């Protein structure tokens, strides 16, 4: 399924039905009075979050949502039928934004959370409403009001406790797959991950949600690669895992790779850059311990990185249990 995390739609609520002008005309009923009924209210449009959805692909082709109009009033004081409401379902984590003003209308972060996004028009009044002791044959009525019409932008931000970031092929997907069982695609070439994927990590009776996003490369903040487009999905995360490949297949320098990711992250968002991070040194099964220690010393001397670091092999599951326990402890704090 194609992952779509942003779209613009138009919602049009139904118009209210008009009131009716009518008088009783029945045999053996002298001097029949007014009996024009009210119109029906126009249908509303609701937006509701649904836990079973994870993309906005349903809005790829359907862009306009029109609720039903209320029916006009009838004689014998019969009110018109109310227009049927429309309920639009979106994934949890969807932001609703006014397309014209860019104002945030609502942020649906819980299952079955709903908002009335476009209110249907109010019904018109029939002539029965206007009868009085001085106006016995009223011919007044009111028209139903127009339903609301809005252009709104839907923007999906995945809800996860933990987010991964790093260069392509650093082992992010392998880690997420092995600790959570998520169905991530794993291979030995860059940009295996094309869309964000969520996984659930369970430790005894506790759990946390981890997000895997495409890798970040040099120039990402200018639009190069895929990662910068999906960095917004880390905004709700409480902690980030910066995963570093200690033995990159392209023979790049791991120290330079760390600098690149941090530079692109900071250029994209200071808020995201300042989130708590763990430095994850991956693929320790491929290099000797002496070289690892030298690498750690270089990091401490040259990068001034203060965050905790972990030595793991996501493929061999070395150190991943301790990492998950520490993540859970951090989240509990």
Bin the strand percentage: 15-25%
CATH architecture of the largest domain: 3-Layer(aba) Sandwich
CATH class categorisation of the largest domain: Alpha Beta
The average pLDDT value, as a whole number, equals: 87
Query: Which value, in Å, is the CA radius of gyration?
Result: 30 Å
Tally of domains: 2
Cofactor: Mg(2+)
Organism: Buchnera aphidicola
Main location: cytoplasm
Enzyme class: hydrolase
Describe the protein's topology:
Elements: E1 6-12, E2 45-50, E3 64-66, E4 86-91, E5 94-98, E6 104-108, E7 114-118, E8 149-156, E9 162-165, H1 172-180, E10 197-203, E11 206-212, H2 227-230, E12 239-245, H3 254-268, H4 270-273, E13 277-282, H5 289-302, E14 309-311, H6 320-332
Parallel strand pairs: 1-3, 2-4, 9-11, 9-12, 12-13, 13-14
Antiparallel strand pairs: 1-8, 2-7, 5-6, 5-8, 10-11
Quick overview:
With 333 residues, this protein is of the alpha/beta class.
Can you give a write-up of this model?
Helices cover 18% and strands 24% of the residues. The protein is an alpha/beta fold and 333 residues long. The chain has two domains: 1-157, GTP1/OBG domain (Spo0b-associated Gtp-binding Protein, Chain: A, Distorted Sandwich); 162-332, P-loop containing nucleotide triphosphate hydrolases (Rossmann fold, 3-Layer(aba) Sandwich). Strands 10-11-9-12-13-14 form a six-stranded mixed β-sheet, sandwiched between helices. A five-stranded mixed β-sheet has the order 3-1-8-5-6, with no helix packed on it. Strands 4-2-7 form a three-stranded mixed β-sheet, with no helix packed on it. Strand 10 and strand 11 form a beta hairpin. The chain is rod-shaped. The two termini are 37 Å apart. The mean pLDDT is 87.
């Amino acid at each position: 399924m194609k992952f779509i995390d942003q779209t613009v739609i138009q919602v049009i609520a139904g118009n209210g039905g008009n009131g009716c002008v009518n008088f009783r005309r029945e045999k053996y009923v002298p001097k029949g009075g007014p009996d024009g009924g009210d119109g029906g209210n126009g249908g509303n449009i609701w937006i509701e979050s649904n836990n079973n959805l994870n993309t906005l692909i349903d809005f790829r082709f359907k862009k306009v949502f029109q609720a039903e109009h209320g029916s006009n009033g009838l004689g014998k004081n019969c009110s018109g039928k109310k227009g049927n409401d429309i309920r639009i379902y979106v994934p949890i984590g969807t932001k609703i934004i006014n397309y014209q003003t860019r104002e945030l209308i609502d942020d649906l972060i819980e299952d079955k959370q709903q908002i009335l996004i476009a209110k249907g028009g109010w019904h018109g009044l029939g002539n029965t409403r206007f009868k009085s002791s001085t106006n016995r044959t009223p011919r007044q009525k009111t028209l139903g009001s127009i339903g609301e019409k809005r252009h709104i932008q839907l923007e999906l931000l995945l809800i996860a406790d933990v987010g991964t970031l790093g260069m392509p092929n650093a082992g992010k997907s392998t880690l997420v797959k092995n600790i959570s069982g998520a169905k991530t695609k794993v291979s030995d070439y860059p940009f295996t991950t094309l869309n964000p994927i969520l996984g659930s990590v369970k430790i005894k009776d506790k759990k946390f949600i981890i997000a895997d996003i495409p890798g970040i490369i040099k120039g990402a903040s200018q639009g190069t690669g895929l990662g910068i487009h999906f960095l917004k999905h880390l905004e709700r995360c409480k902690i980030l895992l910066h995963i570093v490949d200690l033995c990159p297949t392209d023979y790049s320098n791991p120290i330079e790779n760390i600098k690149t990711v941090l530079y692109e992250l900071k250029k994209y968002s200071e808020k995201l850059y300042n989130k708590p991070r763990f430095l994850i040194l991956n693929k320790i099964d491929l290099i000797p311990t002496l070289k690892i220690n030298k690498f750690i010393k270089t990091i401490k001397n040259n990068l001034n990185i203060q965050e905790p670091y972990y030595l793991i092999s996501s493929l061999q599951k070395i150190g991943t249990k301790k990492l998950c326990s520490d993540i859970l402890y951090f989240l509990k704090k």
